Amino acid sequence: MKKVIKTKKKAKVSKKVNKKTNFNIVPLGDRILLKPFSEEETNTTLSGIIIPDTVSKEKPEQGRVIAVGEGKRTEDGKRVPVSVKVGDKVVFSRYGYEEIKHEGEEYYILKEENILAIIR
Predict the structure, then answer these.
(1) Highest-confidence range of 47-51, 57-61, 105-109, by mean pLDDT?
(2) How far apart are the C-alpha atoms of 90 and 62, rounded to whole Å?
(3) How many other CB atoms are found less than 10 A from the CB of residue 40?
(4) Residue 58: what pLDDT?
(5) What is the CA radius of gyration of the chain?
(6) CA dist list (Å): 44 to 3, 5, 18, 21, 48
């Protein structure tokens, strides 16, 4: 009697990974993925003074850019690149983002028009 040996083949899983950051969430168009600063980062001044929670209870409006989309497509089919790059610290509009959770971390996705400034 012949023995039949069955092998399990592993299915190939196609993950789209942002080549710049090795992050597997890629924003589309002129959207930007950013990680909001923690409360400790936003409640401390440059000189090291800590602002108490009783003064600031709102979510931070600053964060670091994690990934950017390809840019906005114009009517003639060309792309206008996004003006921020991965790693930039930015200030964004208070109500202009979508919250997402990925691997236990909180991220925001927003359009480029909701970025108000780059912090240098």
Answers:
(1) 105-109
(2) 6
(3) 8
(4) 57
(5) 21
(6) 69, 63, 32, 28, 6
Sheet of 97-102, strands arranged across: 97-102, 105-111, 31-36, 62-68, 89-92, 115-119
Structural domain spans, the chain:
31-119
| Superfamily for domain range 31-119 | GroES chaperonin (2.30.33.40)
pLDDT at 25: 86
d(CA 34, CA 65): 4
pTM beyond 0.85: the answer is no
Strand residue runs (E) in the chain: 31-36, 62-68, 72-73, 79-80, 89-92, 97-102, 105-111, 115-119
Is 90 exceeded by the pLDDT of residue 51? no
User: Cα–Cα distance between 88 and 42 in angstroms, integer?
Assistant: 16
C-alpha to C-alpha distance for 115 and 36, rounded to whole angstroms: 13
pLDDT band (50, 70, 90) for residue 52: low
